[in-house]
Amino acid sequence: MSSITTRHFLQSAGILLAGLVLAACGKQEPPAPAASAPAPAASAPAPAAKVYLVGTDAAYAPFESQNEKGEIVGFDIEVVQAVAQKAGIEVKFVNTPWEGIFNTLNQGDRDLLVSAITITAERKQTMDFSTPYFDAQQLIAVKKDSKISKFNDLKKLKVGVQNGTTGDEVVAKLQGKDSANIKRFESTPLALKELEAGGVDAVVADNGVVVHYVNNNSGANFKTVSDASFVAEQYGLAVKKGNTELQEKLNKGLADIKTDGTYDKIYTKYFGSPAAPAPAVAASK
Ligand code: ARG
Predict the structure, then answer these.
(1) Same-domain status, 91 and 125
(2) Looking at the domain assignment, is residue 283 inside a domain?
(3) Residue 219 C-alpha to ligand 1 middle, in angstroms?
(4) Ligand 1 centre and the CA of 155: distance in Å?
(5) 76: CA distance to ligand 1 center in Å?
(6) 101, 210: one domain
(7) Which of 76, 100, 185, 189 is the most buried (most CB within 10 A)?
(8) Whether residue 182 has pLDDT greater than 60
(9) In this structure, are residues 175 and 143 in contact, taking their beta carbons and an 8 Å threshold?
(10) What mean pLDDT comes out for the span 103-118?
(11) Residues 162, 177: one domain?
(12) Is residue 36 part of a domain?
């Protein structure tokens, strides 16, 4: 009896001792970083992490839109969230109308923009872009019974575009900037609604958005018309001209999510072929 008790005591003491040693070791570690390790934030009195405000025109599904709860969601949003995580920065999305969205960078109201923004030579003069993160091009939406078969057919017709987009630019080139037949809307969904109502003969906008709308609004009776004259476009994240610090963080984050498969995962979630037999495998294809 007593020998068992003794053994139990010794075992318990041993465990206790081991525990104390571990605890002691563990306790010794925390002071070390503050004292000797290179802790960048250690000297700042109250290092409140900067929250980067991200402007987005959230009327552009599937890239950015508002769900029933009013939350901003979409492909662009998930890409920026993943990039921010890699870059170690905190972001907050702010719904920002397309009209004037670029001015918010200069005014300092937004730190970056994600809005399916095509990188163009003209825009590059007033803002800086990340490396491209998405390929796009223009696409025409028309009613199913329309005879329109190519972009040139729109020369004398009423065309709806979102004001100040690359869609606006291509139609302005075709018809002339001041053509009365170009109907400019605040948002792309408004232009598409007008097509549904018969107020315009066609809408020209980014392919991803047009395809998404056509697929999700079968009642609208739309079809799409592509044209070889539409040039390749690439989306980038926009920052204030000269903000290379943030630009580099974003580029690094984008590179990281492309290498570790996060980008492909997000891409597949939004654009992956539903016919793919096994999404996990298809993503790496
Ligand atoms: N890619 C086009 C452009 O840059 C259209 C972008 C519109 N985006 C939006 N969220 N409304 O001009």
Answers:
(1) yes
(2) no
(3) 25
(4) 22
(5) 12
(6) no
(7) 76
(8) yes
(9) no
(10) 98
(11) yes
(12) no
pLDDT grade for 39, boundaries at 50, 70 and 90? low
Ligand 1 environment, Cβ below 6 A: 57, 60, 64, 98, 115-118, 162, 165-166, 188, 206
DSSP 141-202: EEETT----SGGGGTTS-EEEETTSHHHHHHHHHH-TT-TTEEEESSHHHHHHHHHHTS-SE
Q: How far apart are CA 237 and CA 131, in angstroms?
A: 8
Q: Are residues 220 and 151 in the same domain?
A: yes
User: Does the pLDDT value for residue 234 go beyond 80?
Assistant: yes
- Residue 273 confidence (pLDDT) above 60: no
Contact 62, 270 (CB under 8 A): yes
Q: How far apart are CA 161 and CA 149, in angstroms?
A: 18
- Pick the atom of ligand 1 nearest to 235's CA: 1
Which residue range is the domain that position 126 belongs to? 51-135+235-271
The answer to whether residue 101 scores a pLDDT higher than 80 is yes
Overall number of domains in the chain: 2
Q: What is the per-residue pLDDT for 40?
A: 55
What average pLDDT does range 142-154 have in this prediction? Answer: 98
Residue 46 is assigned to a structural domain of this protein: no
In a domain, 252, yes or no: yes
Domain of residue 180, CATH code = 3.40.190.10
